[in-house]
Structures are given as C-alpha cells and as structure tokens.
C-alpha cells in the first residue's frame, strides 16, 4: 500500500531552519569540479614522535561536534534547479573518513611528497561529508624530523572552507600546550542526525526563496552598477586617479593551458623572521615580500624554458574579507585583487618596488567592493544554469578563445604563531595544498606557523612536472632578495651616519591629534583606553603612547614593552593615512597596519582613529 503524503509535514520540512543552503560563491567550487580538477584543499602536518593512531582517532571523534559540517553532506535540489543544501548525514561513520597507512621505503621526503600527490589527485566522494584524513606512519628518513614521526594529510572540499576558516578548524583540533596527553579526553557527543528532507520539500524551499525575493537578479545588477560608480568616484578623488585600475594586458603563459589529473607539489621553508626583517627594511607589507619572492622564481622558471612573456605575469591575490573572530565559520569569505608581479624586470629590488607601487595604490579598494557584489551575483544565478555553463566552458575549451584574467594565484594565509600539539606531540611543520583547474595550472600558497613560512606550490604533471625544482627557485629567490636588501641597508646606514636623522613625517599627526583631543574632551571619554603605536622608520622604530585613561589625554613618545594594544605601521603609511591619501580599510586589507591585543581594544582604537580622521 502506497504511503500517504502528509502535506503539512512536507511544508514544515521545507520552511524549517535545520538545513542550510550553499551560497552562490561556495557553489562555484562545486560546478568547477571535473575529472581533472577535484576542488578540495589539503594540509600536510608533520607530527614528531610516535603518535598512536587510536589516540588520534579518539581526539577527532571527541571534537567532531565542534565542526558540524564534518557530519553533513550535500543534498541536491531535483533537476539542479537551485543550489544544494547542507544536511545531516544519517549514515555518517568516522571510519569512512580516516585512513591509516605506512610510508613506503625509502621513508624520506621525496616518497612522502609522491604519496601525498597521489592522495591529493583523488576526488572526495560528493555523496558523503566532504573530508578525509590519511594518518601516515613511519617517517624515518626525513631531515630534522625524529624517526618514527607521523604525517597527517587532511583533505576538505573548497565548497565549505577557505584559508582563514581552515586555520580556525586547526585551532579546534590541535592543542596549544603539550599537556594534552595528560588531560582527560572527553567522550564523543552522541550524533542525532535530522531526517533527510524529501525532494518535494527541497523544491518548496527553493521556490519560496524565489517568491520571497523575486527581484533578486535586477536588485543585484543595480547594486553592481552602484558599487562600480562608487568605486570610480572614490578613485577619482584619491591618489589612484594617477593610475589606471586593472587595464593592463594579461599574457598567455604555460600556466594557462589544460591540466592533467595528476597533481604535483613542492614547498620551500623560509624563516618568518628573516622575511619579516626584509619588510621592516624596505617598508610595505609582508605580502609584498612574498609576491616578490614568488615573482623571482616564476621569472627564472619561465626564462629557462624560453617562455617568459614580454608583459609581466598577473597574479590573482585572494584577500580574506572575513570579520575578526569569525575564523571557524566554515564557508568562503574572500575577495581578489589582480597584481602585475613584475616578471619583466630583471633586478629583484626594482621588481619589489614595482609590486609595492601596485598594491599601495589601492587596487584592493575597488576589487574588494567588486568581490562582495560578485558574491551576490553568484547567488542570483540558478545553480543548474551555472553548472551547465561551467561544463561547456571546460568541454569546448572556451578559455582558448580569450586571454586569461590572470596567470597564477598567490595566496598568503597567516597561521598560528605558536607551537601546536596533538596529544602532547609537537606539530613540526604545516604545508597547504590547493586546487588547480583548466586554464589556471599554478597556485602558490604561503602559510606561516611557529617562526616558519612555508611557500607551497601546487600544479599538475603537465603544467609543472618539476614542482620541487620550482621550490628550489623560491628559496634562491628569497636568498637573493635578502642579500640585496641587506646591502642596501648597509649603504643607507653609512649615508645616514654622516648626517643627522630627520624626524618622522607622522609626528605631525600626533601633534594634530593632541590638539584635537584637547578641543574635544568627549572623544577622550568615548574611547577610554591606552593605545601604543610603533612607527617604523626603516632600520629603527619610534613608539607613541596615546593615554585616554584619564580626563585629559596624554600623547607622548614612550617605550612600552607590554602594551594592551599594539599598533604597528610604517611612517610613510601613517603619514599617508593622516593626509587622506590612503584609507584605514585600505591599510588593513593590504596588511600595512597590524593590531595586536583584545578584540575590544582593537575595536575601540579603530573607532577612535576613524573619528579623528573624519573630524
């Protein structure tokens, strides 16, 4: 006898809040998936000592409830009429996601890289929760890694994670102290999955979403036009008017062809402090230095193959637009800016200067606005149509009919600055692998952890079969840049020693700020606190303390070793901010201002400085 349809129950399922729809931006990673392009990201963590597999499994099981999407799967709407939904997987079994294996002999770095390349090439099962972990034992012949250590290779689909949220998940799974082994491990929380909604419920829910907002597409188009006009006006009123936005030719390189299914990767381990020292010497952002190092390696790689284009290679540089304190929310919150990375310039210092000029002139301001609007536009496009277009684009090589929008992706994700542990075992190194697709066969991911900066290159066997050689070029590019910067620093120091050092240009801002607070005592009360600004002056720094803890503000030069809020900024950037040539948001996006302290103090300082700048 046929089951009676309960319409009331179906309607309740359709309009319940227990299932969450994939956003248009996240869905892009689904319809980009193909036989040669599985769209997952991965991390390879080296853990010293003989960590036991059973202990590792119990740790993962005890923390799964903190990452709900690890027990959810995607459920498609019938006929792909709308974006899929995240639903609880009633068949979830942790053993289907954990894999134990031993590294084959010889148990060295080359073998580990070959094995993980093979694992990374295999797609995740889209019918299950989109993650897997390989627990690889027996790392016996890797330099600076104790014999018997393990490697943990984790794959997560890009539909539910970006770089920043990946760091947030890492902080959930790993410990910040080595006493984890002594602590009593919590038992796994029971998993009571919600029943799967039926097809009619999904159709009703999708239909209701359209009826609720039938003007979604025209509204998004209008917002796009508004953002474009606003960004044009902003650029005309700022220093950007001297330069065009992104109207430059993008060359076709060997990185922009069809890719193969087999992944290749290599990594270069650099000292974070040494790279950061370069930033302090030449000014600009940490990301500028990373781009310059990668640019040197790309230029050499193409030059040796007689494939170096006349026009500079263009890099897509993702920027996180995730709000602070929101790193564990599992979705993609990124914008992109296009940067010419000066591969047409031979001298490394001139290349760096060219890159700094581009990032300093604020392309991020326009492109971040555009990225947010494009995210809304993606939500307005029916999933089935987008899927069809993506399939046709790949099948008929439409990319060959036009120039690529960029040549290579270079991403920089700040990781944990302190040591992480797993059941008392130290995490030695962390490397990030990223997906490549047809037309974009090279992506470089920089990741900082515990004094190390790993710059990991992911490609495929057709585009870059010798990724390990390219990683060597990255190391040598970093060494070459460091040598030239140190030489420049010595020359600059000898010149300065013969004459008196000029005072910082930003001193004028602190003088004006002192007068402003004297005339506006309400601002002192409204932004009560003590803020310390460390101004970079080439090879030295100058400290300013802004004390708003009493009725009368006190602003003076002072050395404060343990401030509650530390603001680090170069003199040139602070002066440009004061003069209105750069925006505060611009400096934050470009990494030219760094705030260290509690979220409350950061917010209070930003509100305070914004009020002053808008006076």
From TrEMBL:
Residue intervals of the O-acyltransferase WSD1-like N-terminal domain: 23-290
Pathway participation: Glycerolipid metabolism; triacylglycerol biosynthesis; Lipid metabolism
SCP2 domain mapped to chain residues: 518-598
Keyword hit for Coiled coil: yes
Residue ranges constituting the O-acyltransferase WSD1 C-terminal domain according to the UniProt record: 332-481
Enzyme class: transferase
Record keywords: Acyltransferase, Coiled coil, Glycerol metabolism, Lipid biosynthesis, Lipid metabolism, Transferase
Gene3D superfamilies (alphabetical): SCP2 sterol-binding domain
EC numbers: 2.3.1.20
Catalyzed reactions: an acyl-CoA + a 1,2-diacyl-sn-glycerol = a triacyl-sn-glycerol + CoA
Source organism superkingdom: Bacteria
Coiled-coil intervals, chain numbering: 471-498
Pfam families to which the protein is assigned, alphabetical: SCP2 (PF02036), WS_DGAT_C (PF06974), WS_DGAT_cat (PF03007)
NCBIfam families the record matches: acyl_WS_DGAT (TIGR02946)
Family: Belongs to the long-chain O-acyltransferase family.
Protein name: diacylglycerol O-acyltransferase
Species per Swiss-Prot/TrEMBL record: Winogradskyella vincentii
């Amino acid at each position: 006898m046929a089951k009676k349809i309960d319409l009331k129950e179906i309607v309740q399922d359709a309009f319940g809040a227990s299932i969450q729809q994939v956003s248009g931006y996240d869905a892009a990673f689904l319809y980009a998936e193909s036989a040669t392009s599985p769209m997952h990201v991965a991390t390879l963590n080296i853990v010293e000592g003989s960590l036991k597999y059973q202990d590792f499994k119990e740790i993962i099981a005890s923390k799964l409830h903190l990452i709900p999407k690890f027990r959810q799967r995607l459920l498609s709407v019938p006929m792909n009429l709308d974006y899929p939904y995240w639903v609880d997987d009633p068949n979830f079994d942790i053993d289907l996601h954990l894999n134990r294996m031993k590294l084959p002999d010889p148990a060295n770095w080359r073998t580990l890289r070959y094995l993980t390349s093979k694992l990374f090439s295999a797609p995740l099962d889209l019918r299950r929760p989109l993650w897997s972990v390989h627990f690889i034992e027996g790392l016996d012949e890797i330099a600076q890694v104790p014999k018997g250590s393990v490697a943990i290779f984790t794959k997560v689909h890009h539909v539910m994670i970006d770089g920043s949220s990946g760091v947030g998940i890492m902080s959930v799974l790993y410990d910040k102290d080595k006493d984890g082994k002594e602590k009593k491990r919590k038992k796994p929380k029971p998993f009571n999955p919600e029943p799967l909604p039926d097809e009619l419920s999904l159709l009703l829910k999708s239909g209701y979403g359209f009826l609720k907002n039938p003007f979604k597409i025209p509204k998004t188009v209008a917002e796009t036009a508004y953002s474009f006009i606003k960004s044009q006006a902003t650029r005309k009123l700022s220093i950007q008017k001297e330069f065009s936005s992104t109207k430059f030719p993008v060359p076709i390189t060997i990185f922009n062809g069809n890719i193969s299914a087999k992944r290749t990767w290599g990594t270069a381990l650099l000292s974070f402090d040494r790279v950061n020292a370069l930033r302090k010497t030449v000014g600009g952002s940490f990301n500028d230095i990373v781009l310059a190092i990668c640019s040197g390696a790309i230029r050499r790689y193409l030059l040796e193959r007689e494939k170096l284009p006349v026009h500079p290679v263009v890099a897509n540089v993702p920027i996180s637009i995730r709000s602070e304190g929101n790193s564990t929310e599992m979705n993609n919150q990124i914008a992109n800016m296009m940067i010419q990375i000066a591969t047409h310039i031979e001298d490394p210092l001139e290349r760096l200067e060219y890159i700094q000029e581009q990032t300093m002139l604020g392309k991020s301001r326009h492109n971040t606005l555009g990225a947010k609007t494009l995210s809304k536009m993606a939500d307005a496009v029916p999933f089935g149509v987008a899927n069809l277009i993506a399939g046709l684009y790949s099948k008929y090589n439409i990319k060959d009919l036009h120039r690529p929008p960029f040549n290579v992706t270079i991403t920089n994700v700040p990781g944990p600055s302190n040591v992480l542990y797993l059941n008392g075992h130290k995490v030695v190194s962390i490397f990030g692998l990223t997906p490549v697709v047809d037309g974009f066969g090279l992506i470089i991911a920089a990741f900082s952890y515990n004094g190390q900066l790993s710059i990991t290159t992911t490609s495929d066997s057709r585009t870059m079969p010798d990724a390990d050689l390219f990683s060597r070029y990255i190391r040598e590019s970093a060494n070459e840049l460091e040598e030239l910067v140190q030489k420049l620093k010595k020359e600059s120091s000898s010149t300065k020693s013969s004459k008196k050092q000029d005072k910082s240009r930003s001193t004028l801002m602190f003088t004006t700020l002192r007068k402003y607070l004297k005339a506006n005592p309400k601002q002192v009360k409204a932004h009560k606190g003590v803020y310390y600004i460390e101004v970079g002056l080439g090879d030295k720094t100058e400290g300013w303390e802004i004390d708003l803890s009493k009725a009368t503000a006190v602003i003076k030069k002072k050395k404060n070793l343990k401030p509650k809020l530390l603001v680090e900024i170069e003199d040139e950037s602070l002066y440009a901010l004061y003069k209105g040539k750069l925006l505060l948001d611009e400096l934050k996006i470009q990494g030219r201002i760094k705030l260290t302290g509690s979220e409350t103090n950061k917010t209070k300082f930003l509100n305070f400085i914004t009020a002053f700048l808008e006076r």
